[in-house]
Design a protein that fits this description.
globular
Amino acid sequence: MFYIIFLLLIISLTKGATEIFGISETITQLVIDGLVLLLFSLSFLRMLKHKSIKGPAFFLNILLIIVILISFFISLVNEIQMILFVRKFGIYYLFFYALYNSNLSEEEKDKLFKLLVFLFLAQIPAAFIKLGLIGTMEDYVGMMTIQQGSLATIMPIMAISFLIAGYLEYQKIKILFFIVLFIAIGLISNKMGILFYVIFLFIILSYLYSLRYTQGMNFINILFFRKMLLVSMILTFIFLAFISLNPRANPEGIVGGSIDIEHLTNYIDDYQNLKLKDSRTEGDGRFEAPVVAFDRLKSAGISNILFGFGPGDIVKSSYTPFDDPLLQKYNIGYGGRLGLVYIMIQLGFVGVTLFILFHIILFKKLWILYTRIDLTTYGRTLVLGALGFPLIFMLDFFTYSSILIIESGMALSYYFVIYYILTSKNIEYKQANQKKI
């Protein structure tokens, strides 16, 4: 099982590099799907042997499966569309529960986590090579993809979540340096969102950090504000540098442009509420698309509001009659990339609710672990960093994309990290000798 997971992490986080050398992403994804199914099959045999299934919120996800089936039977989607949906959406759930029911040793878990860290760090030089060869553009995100620009925001902030946690615990300048390097991946891909997500994460993780030491749930505490004074200075510097270095953020449209907050505000408003000139597409903007999606469900009836238009209804495939089903069937454009729209259109509000509850449960389990007193400093850093993952998931789901739902590299990384943190014994206090970041 160790070698299957090893291959999965490497293949999913280097898809872009392999595609450059002629191996299509379709073939790579088929290999990933096959490896996940093999891993789950081996784990399933162990489940049968031990007559038990491990993993958080298993019953909740059984309910989600029931909702998918109900949605399928009351909708017009066919079996192929449902299979395509399960392949895109459910394959990573299988991976998560396969991990929980595997026979990995603590040493193997640690090796896989170190591999994941290495693969994330490797995206930094890959991004700078891209900058030197082709300049700033959304595509070619590290080694991960040559076509999905949103990855240039989501991948770096997942790494930055751990770096923020490390900085709060250790206060080392080198950690800030790595934060800047990961932000640079977003800059190189001309992504604005990364800056605001980093600011959000810094504030929230600083607050969670302070809660652990004050043992209270009140917002006002001295430790939080002491941390935020320094953090605010760091964020201000990063914010101003970002505006100047990102051509989209300054009025001159160049690297090293002037700092103009009004121009930035107008740009963000235009971008988030995108409305193409002479376009008849209603759901171009990210803020607009969920409203349009709900209107489509509401006009179809109460059963569609609850259970959507069916699993696979908007999945793109050569086996379906639409090149862009969300646009062609529902007139929802660019903003339809939101995870919220993706799940709501297909599974309705019941599906969205169960889906969100699962990630809330993951956050709660991580929080309970974080408040334990027998964690090492290294362990506290890892758990706090992992606490950022469900928060990033929610941000992505409601405001940005569906990357963490359907993109293999990010989804596999997300579920592996949460599994590793929740099950690792090496983050607990044992001896005076502790691991250092």
